[in-house]
Write a structure and sequence with these properties.
This protein is α/β, with parallel strands linked by helices. It has two domains: 3-77, lambda repressor-like DNA-binding domains (434 Repressor (Amino-terminal Domain)); 83-277, Endonuclease, Chain A, CATH 3.30.870. It is 50% helix and 13% strand. The protein has twelve helices and seven strands. The chain has helices at residues 3-22, 27-34, 38-45, 53-62, 69-77, 86-89, 95-106, 126-140, 146-156, 183-196, 243-257, 263-277; strands at residues 83-85, 110-115, 166-172, 202-207, 221-224, 228-232, 236-240. A seven-stranded mixed β-sheet has the order 1-7-6-5-2-3-4. A hairpin with a 3-residue loop joins strand 5 and strand 6. Helix 8 packs across helix 9 and helix 10 (183-196) packs antiparallel against helix 12 (263-277). It is elongated. The termini are far apart. The mean pLDDT is 92. InterPro entries: Cro/C1-type_HTH, DUF5753, Lambda_DNA-bd_dom_sf. It holds the Pfam family DUF5753. GO terms for molecular function: DNA binding.
């Protein structure tokens, strides 16, 4: 059994245990309420057994919260895909991962995203993307298919020119100053951002340094069609589709958006970063 699957199963078990505890019922009595053996309740709560949809539906009803059944089914469905190790995904190189994202972006109509430390892949220039992918290849010790991966990432950007799409993207101002590439590459990348302002399919907001915020900038994330959230960490890609998680990340995005600069003000912030970074 994969570590990713087991981690997801343990997380589901923890949620089941939480619902039982909130109902104020001990494990023995809860099993009796369900007509199960006590050991089954224990195995499910501790991630030792995989639940079925019938199990999660019955659990929600027994805990007195039948409205939680849909969330539990969603968590169950996502056991295999909720956590995907980058080491495993990159075993064949970066291109397969980029190709997968091309397909996912093509079937997405509306996206809300936020990045705190990097220019989003959707907006990257080939040179900027090349430096990022090369650095990540070294870090993850994965196959060096850099040029193929860059080409695939550029294909992802074709969705920016498709009618009916909308990409609402926030970038923390700090990301405009992070030199993960030579200065001349970064200035070209910033020029690319300026060119995106005003596109009918793009709403680009810059969250200024020093702006009052209702929450901390935290990590980057992407909300696909208000149905799924993708979060990338150093070693794992996380995918969430429960109603609670979607609502939580939606509130975070909304909070950051209250401080974001758009239009001419965003242009000025990008121009300031370009001036500071430009080669002497």
């Amino acid at each position: 059994m994969s570590t990713d699957f087991q981690s997801g199963r343990v997380a589901l078990g923890a949620r089941l245990r939480e619902l039982r505890a909130e109902a104020g019922v001990n494990g023995k009595d809860f099993a009796a309420r369900l007509g199960w053996q006590r050991s089954k309740v224990s195995r499910l709560e501790n991630g030792k057994q995989t639940a079925t949809e019938a199990d999660t539906d019955a659990w929600a009803t027994a805990a007195g919260v039948p409205e939680q059944a849909a969330d539990l089914r969603s968590r169950l469905k996502g056991l295999e895909s909720q956590q995907r190790s980058w080491r495993r995904q990159l075993a064949a190189g970066h291109r397969p991962v980029q190709d997968r994202y091309v397909v996912e972006y093509q079937r997405t109509a509306t996206m809300r995203g936020y990045e705190a430390t990097v220019i989003p892949g959707l907006f990257q220039t080939p040179d900027y993307a090349r430096h990022l992918i090369e650095a990540n290849t070294t870090l993850m010790q994965s196959p060096r298919d850099i040029e193929a991966a860059v080409a695939a990432r550029m294909r992802r950007q074709e969705v920016l020119y498709e009618p009916g799409k909308l990409f609402r993207v926030l970038v923390w101002e700090a990301a405009l100053h992070v030199l993960v590439c030579p200065r001349h590459v970064m200035t070209g990348q910033l020029d690319r951002l300026v060119g995106l302002i005003g596109m009918s399919t793009v709403e680009l907001g810059i969250v200024p340094l020093g702006a009052p915020l209702p929450l901390t900038p935290k990590h980057g994330f992407w909300i696909f069609d208000e149905e799924r959230v993708i979060v990338e960490t150093v070693n794992t890609e996380l995918s969430y589709d429960s109603a609670d998680d979607l609502a939580l990340y939606g509130r975070v995005w909304d909070g950051l958006n209250t401080a974001a600069a758009y239009g001419a003000q965003a242009h000025r912030l990008i121009a300031r970063a370009r001036h500071l970074i430009a080669p002497a």
